[in-house]
Amino acid sequence: MGSKWFTGGVVAASRGRIQFDFRIDGVRYRPTIKRPPSEANLRRARERLEVIKRQIEDGTFSFADEFPDYRFLCRLGGAGKVRLCNDVFDEYLAHCEARMRRDDLAAATLHGYRKVLDGGWRPALGQLLFYDVSYSQLVAIADRHEWSKKTYNNALSVLRRAFDFGYRDHPLEANPARSLRGARLRKADRPRVDPFSMHDAETLIAAIHRDWGEAQGNYDEFRFFTGLRPSEQIALVLTDIDLENGVISVSKARVSGVDRCKTKTGEDRRVQLCPRALMVLKRQLALRERLIAAGLIQHDHVFVYATGEPIQDLQVVTIRWRKTLLSQEVRYRRPYTARHSSVSWNLMLGKNVLWVAKQHGHSIITMLRIYAAWTEGAVEADVAAIERAMMLTRTPPRNRPRKPPRSGGRFAFQEKAASTVDDLAVVQSVPKTISEFFAACDARIRRLTACTAKEKRSWLGWQDSNLRMAGSKPAALPLGDTPAHQPKINPSDSACGATRARGRYSAPAQRNSSTGPARAPRCVPRRSRSRTARRYRNPFQSAGPVRIAPANRGLPRPRGNARGPLARNRSGRPTPERRAL
Fold it and tell me: For residue 242, which of 126, 247, 315, 549 is within the disulfide window of CB 3.0 to 4.6 Å?
């Protein structure tokens, strides 16, 4: 076939193929491609070989990308090493670690990514060529696992992120992971809120105190009566406590042993402690002082183990919770249910929904969608048990005389008195159900926008005999409120006849007190409007007050389709009757 110098490292091979000849790290490789060995194809192959040699020198050459059909591709090493799925997963996790160091990714998120890739995808995809993986292979691997809907969606999400990272060098290639579709989560698939009753909660708290000691018991008892997230509670330090005002500041969290300077939602809040929670906190601080005297504490964290060590993660406390709860005759619930119980108890006491949402770091939509519906079945016995457990004492409202109603039938708003600081958040007028909540909102809107009967009469002017007194500034009426006793106008009282409701002139009769007989009215033009404005008027515009000429105030503008001699047609031109005048 000739020497390499003469052929340039490219020769014609059998079966219509072209063979390349080059070296990587001293190892000779002669891959082939399926192309007819014509003069033009050989010339292009020599040009491509020069590019390959430059890439080998720069360290950017990828054997699998250039020759994907090479039969010894899996045996390559060094600079010509192919890219396996394990390599892509390692590169992606290294990139996530760099993001975590820049505070762009949470440590718990990185831990979840590594757990999904190492446990679910590496055993089946690790040794496969990355660019040879197909969609059918990914679906078959995912279907072999007995995952729930949420776990299935999480696993597909992590795989899609890793494959997107691997295909960024080749954006024109088809990424098989993008076609994966997650399971549809319905409302019935979401976990149902199942809070503890006060009797079950007290039974569990007493059992934890008995089984694991005061340190663990204080931790679980405090979470029931504050509703803090577990990551927020184990991150509390001494500077976050204000015992004089009974308030704690929640501004950080500890997730998987890593401290974060912000909470889950990224918003700081101040939590008002009920008397029961304040008592538990004082008991925990006394225990901490005893551990400091014994030389077991060298930190400022509030909740610790019995040995004085701070709680780094939730694994130990969760195991203890499970063992104690399974030993009791109580239905098992996960530890996070203590937070749900705290929210539900506050709503059952009738506290303001906005205040409860702010205390627990929730949105108002979450409160109404998840928790408010559960409190509809609350009975008085349960509410009394919650008040006793939280050490809330209420005094009956003071017997104050009721204020007399104002003119128009509006009564002054009165609220019930509260005795303790915690009861200041209890708004007696706030309902306990969603339907009553929106009904109360509608009633308050009507009450704020209502207009008294005296104001309506002064605006209409039909009760005052002096028309000049009725020419004052009209009062604003609520949307959709029309006068119930609007008088009718006799067309014979006007020299011009009944005026058009949407016309440009308003000509009621005027009487001169000095001469006696009625004189011809003076037609005062209103603001002209275009045909489009007259045709497409705001339907709510007729409900409000009508602007009338100063000389004609005191009488309402007539409505209807009556047309007088001074009326105009739809195009704005005078009617035949007016032209006759």
Answer: 247
